[in-house]
Hints:
Coiled coil: 41-78
Structural class: mainly alpha
Transmembrane segments: 18-37
Function: Component of the F(0) channel, it forms part of the peripheral stalk, linking F(1) to F(0).
Number of strands: 0
Keywords: ATP synthesis, Cell membrane, CF(0), Coiled coil, Hydrogen ion transport, Ion transport, Membrane, Transmembrane, Transmembrane helix, Transport
Family: Belongs to the ATPase B chain family.
Number of domains: 1
Strand content: under 5%
Amino acid sequence: xxxxxxxxxxxxxxxxxxxxxxxxxxxxxxxxxxxxxxxxxxxxxxxxxxxxxxxxxxxxxxxxxxxxxxxxxxxxxxxxxxxxxxxxxxxxxxxxxxxxxxxxxxxxxxxxxxxxxxxxxxxxxxxxxxxxxxxxxxxxxxxxxxxxxxxxxxxxxxxxxxxxxxxxxxxxxx
Length: 174
């Protein structure tokens, strides 16, 4: 076979076949549009809507998370402030209690001091009265012995000295 024969057969257009293929192609496109394109397009729209909803949900969740983080931060700041106030109140209460305790201790010490002063004064008065009584008794004894005995001056001095020593010994025993 010669190349012209092949070339001649190829250049002849078969319009009937072409028309058949064209109609077949158009029918195929119509079937694809009806059975495939609509469901695929609907599926793509649903997918796009789902993605958009997911993006919106994610944005809402992010915003809520930010709001929650801000609320927690504010609550943390408030708790720090409240804790500081509680500590400050506790310090003030402690200081007030310390002052009350110190004032009570000072008052009690002052009361004890006053009582001790009064006791010392009373004891001093009792001691002075005791000494006065002892001196009076001593004087009476001396006078009675002087009267009963007419002593000389040296004997009187010795007698007085012995009574004073005896008085000192009596006070030491008490």
